[in-house]
Design a protein that fits this description.
Layout: E1 7-8, E2 15-16, E3 21-23, E4 29-31, H1 32-35, H2 49-63, E5 71-79, E6 82-89, E7 95-99, E8 112-113, E9 119-120, E10 130-131, E11 134-137, E12 147-152, E13 158-166, E14 174-179, H3 185-233, H4 238-253, H5 262-266
Antiparallel strand pairs: 1-2, 3-4, 5-6, 6-7, 7-8, 9-11, 10-11, 12-13, 13-14
Helix pairs in contact: 3-4
């Protein structure tokens, strides 16, 4: 095959040259135009044609998750009018999205989950599952997980930065944010620290939420048992009392019932 020969895109059939296509693991090609239907951070060379097709469909579905979701915006001025955004769901939610000048050329905003940030460690025994041939472990510390590396040119001058977020997804083994050299170094460091802080906050918030749910479930179980006992002693409907307790337990799991703060309890709100 000649170096500059054209190959058909497996999705649209268009003949494209080497500079305008990517090779999938199934040995066929996807053109740059079709590639823009998917996640801009995905590694299509790790995926088969069927997996890439599913990634396209998932990208469209996932973007709808952002509808109506309030997002905090952490941004970096990358110079020359370029802005990099790290937007995370308010209130410690799981969703975040990233926008760079390159991702804006894609059809759909990428959607990620804090709970899916993972690092490579094949030797660990507590592996949840594997992506490809490389198992991943549960997150323990974001400060050593997310990395920022300065790139140097041949003459040892700054040539930009690479911010890497390991990710637990077959299509996206890591989220690589390329920061140009025109960005201010102090602002880059601050941007990096703030992203790590967002992750740490989300984890601590999740731990507290889990503890609150556990406490609410324990109180609900005791209350349900008492109500059922009262109903039995008074000849009431025990099944109704149990059904109400079960429904409240479901509501607690779904986050519809939350632990009240001090002032809410004080003023009966």
């Amino acid at each position: 095959m000649a170096l500059f020969s054209k190959e058909p895109c497996a999705f649209c059939g268009k003949e494209v040259g080497m500079m305008s296509r990517s090779k999938m693991s199934s040995k066929d090609y996807v053109c740059d135009d079709c590639r823009k239907k998917g996640n801009p951070f995905a590694r299509v060379d790790h995926l088969t044609k069927d997996q890439v097709a599913e990634m396209f469909a998932r990208s469209e579905r996932d973007e709808k998750l952002l509808d109506g979701v309030e997002l905090n915006d952490e941004y970096l001025d990358a110079g020359r009018g370029r802005i990099i955004h790290f937007r995370s769901q308010k209130g410690g939610g799981d969703i975040f999205t990233i926008s760079t000048p390159e991702t804006q050329r894609y059809e759909h905003r990428p959607v990620f989950y804090f709970s899916s940030i993972r690092k490579w460690n094949p030797s660990e025994a507590f592996v949840e599952r594997s992506v490809g041939a490389a198992p991943r472990e549960a997150v323990c510390d974001y400060s050593t997980l997310i990395t920022l590396r300065e790139k140097l040119s041949a003459d040892k001058k700054n040539d930009g930065w690479e911010l890497r977020i390991p990710y637990f997804d077959a299509a996206v083994p890591e989220i690589l944010i390329k920061i140009p050299k025109e960005a201010d170094a102090d602002k880059v460091q601050r941007f990096y620290r703030n992203i790590c802080g967002k992750c740490d906050y989300r984890v601590s918030r999740g731990i507290q939420t889990a503890r609150d749910k556990e406490e609410l479930q324990a109180k609900n179980a005791c209350k349900t048992a008492n109500e059922a006992l009262k109903a039995a002693l008074k000849g009431g409907d025990v099944k109704e009392a149990l059904a109400e307790g079960l429904q409240k337990s479901i509501d607690i799991d779904q986050g519809k019932v939350r632990k009240k703060g001090f002032f809410a309890r004080l003023f009966g709100r």
